[in-house]
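#struct-queue
[09:14] JT: dropping the first one here, sequence first, then the structure tokens:
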Amino acid sequence: NISQRHREAVKAKRIIEESALSFMAWYESLDVVPTVVALRNKIARIAESETRKTLGSALKHLAQEDKQAVQRMTEAIINKILHDPTTFLKNSSSRKEKHRYLDITKRLFKLESDSQKYH
């Protein structure tokens, strides 16, 4: 009975350690969220604007169902393009490195000035 409890305690300790590591990784990724959200919002606004222009002029003959398919395709393209950069930013190893990449991302996409416009 005591050896059974010991084995269960070892299992519980392992689960707690894994959960703590998972929580810390999640917590450390939180500083990436505002930049990722700002980037996604900016790209989505651009894509929505351009899609609306195209669907309202060159593709205005399309049925509503086809227009919705174009919009879904646009959203899928955005998600695929932004997946790797988002993952890269979240998984940057050191805190200093992560902040450097976040700063570069903000500068490349002019996110600082955009985020100030919308707050």
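[09:21] JT: and here's the second one, same format:
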Amino acid sequence: MLSAVPPSTLARTLRRAEEALSKTLEKYSPARISWPSPSHQLELAKLVEALEPLLKPH
């Protein structure tokens, strides 16, 4: 229990909050999660390697 809240109540409340947030942000594009394309990921990795050579994979 967290702060005298039963786990089932906490889980239900969090699930409902997540659903409400998801529904609210559904059509708000700045809030969307997106990943760079594989080619852009390679470009970003090269930039990181240039700044932090110890992070380069072996």
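[09:30] RK: nice, looked through the second one.
[09:31] RK: DSSP finds two helices and no strands in the chain.
[09:31] JT: good to know. The helical segments are 7-25, 38-51.
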